[in-house]
Amino acid sequence: MVARVVHSKRTHEDDIFRSDAYMRSVRSVRKYWREIARYPLYPQAMAIIILLGVLAWTANYSGGVGLLGAVLGIGYLGQYLIGVVQETTLGHAHPPGIVDEIVTQPGYLRLALLLVYLGTFVAAANAAQWLGIPLLAYLALGIGTAMLPAFIAVLSVVDDMREAGNPLRLRHFIFNTERGYYALGIPMIVMVWVAYALHGGLTSLFCLFAASYLLVALSHLLGFVACHRYAELNTDSEILKQGDTTRRRNVQQEALDALLSEIDGLVARGDPRTACDIMFREHAGLTNPLQFHQDLYHALKVRRQYVLMLVQGKRLIHMLMQVKHIGRALSIYEECLDISPYFRPWDMRGVLQLAESALQDHRLRCFDKIVTSVVLRNPGGPETAALQFRKARYLAEVEKNEAAALDELRPLVTLVSHPLHSRIAALYRALQNKAA
Fold it and tell me: What does the pLDDT read at residue 408?
């Protein structure tokens, strides 16, 4: 049970690491589109979507006091969207925690400006409805909904809050999304209009859920744009405000970008050997060399430069094992084996350690890949028999599958010169007796 928990934790950490590295390596919105669409489905984001949808829906049934309460609630939850933009801008592909963004570190000035924005357009729509001009009400709702994600994005990344309402800044954000803003924003406006026209009911509620989903996706999209185009968007100030750690991270990212650009050029010219050589060049000023090499590995994977990826994978596994990140090293090892079963890390001792870790984490499929690789590279070697014996023990002791364990042991019994022969024979006899 403990091993299963450890495996789950490591897998989750690997997932976060891979998502962050992938987001930082992809610069095109079109290539990242699938992740943008999937972002609101994470539990933290989905909870916000449900809360926003319910609050907006209840506003249809409320009088003045209820409407004011709904606006205040939506504005308060809107702080989470600010956190989404900021976290994405800093290179994090997973949604932030709800408590962290809303409860423990509220931004009162940003909250006030967000409430003013929401209150202005809601008041305009209600005034138009009271005056009997429904088209004006729809226009106010449409403009307010359309500009809300851009307003939140600018609000998230500027020091001078007066910039939040600057139409040029809003337009600049929208134009840098490669039309992604329109692809998500137009359906969001339509959903809000349909919900407003229906004045309640389950259809209205589902429309507001859909609009909230698109709002969260747009927030992540704008953060993605700010992450990669902070110079064009002039958002350096907020990133620098995050402290020296982020500034150093940007310097390291620039070094990675320069290296990848050089590698791409060499590969395009048909010179992968030189591309491989420059990967081992020393890079001065790296604040987190391990992170640098992890980002390089995943960038090569995204580019499908598999030969270079295997070379970098060998070095990365060695670095990860030095700092005892065995679970992550095992995941990299498995990815490399999927590309080439002949792949092997630096030494056999590391292979055996990773194989043992695979069994402890109940990753039997990964273990089998390692055994296959060892057999291909060193057929008939003592390590192969040792690994097969370890698998037989696992099948017998953990899986309680004596028949499968006997099948693994049967070809090993004849290896009388193997150092483990006495233990192999003893386990084989014990399983035979038990089966009888």
Answer: 72
- Rounded Cα gap, residues 142 and 14, in angstroms: 41
Is residue 370 within 8 Å of residue 354, measured between CB atoms?
Answer: yes
Whole-number Å distance between alpha carbons of 290 and 320: 8
Residue 264 has pLDDT above 80, yes or no: yes
- pLDDT tens digit string along 275-328? 888 888 777 667 778 888 888 888 888 888 888 999 888 888 888 888 888 888
Give the CA count within 13 Å in the CB-facing half-sphere of 306. Answer: 8
List the beta strands (DSSP E) in 152-309: none
Give the span between the Cα atoms of 169 and 171, in whole angstroms.
Answer: 5
User: How far is the CA of 221 from the CAs of 52, 269, 312, 335, 379, in angstroms?
Assistant: 19, 34, 30, 28, 51
How many Cα atoms occupy the beta-carbon half-sphere of 100 within 13 Å? 10
Helix (H, G, I), strand (E, B) or coil at 398: coil
CB crowding 193-225: b at 16 or more within 10 Å, else e: bbbbeeeeeeebbebbbbbbbbbbbbbbbbbbb
Residue in the structure block whose two tokens are 């030494």 = 347
Q: What is the DSSP letter of 61?
A: G
Contact 335, 14 (CB under 8 A): no
Query: Closest by alpha carbon to 228, among 436, 43, 24?
Result: 24
CA atoms within 13 Å, Cβ hemisphere of 398 = 15
pLDDT digits (tens, 9 = 90+) for 54-104: 888 887 766 666 677 778 888 778 888 888 888 888 778 888 877 666 654
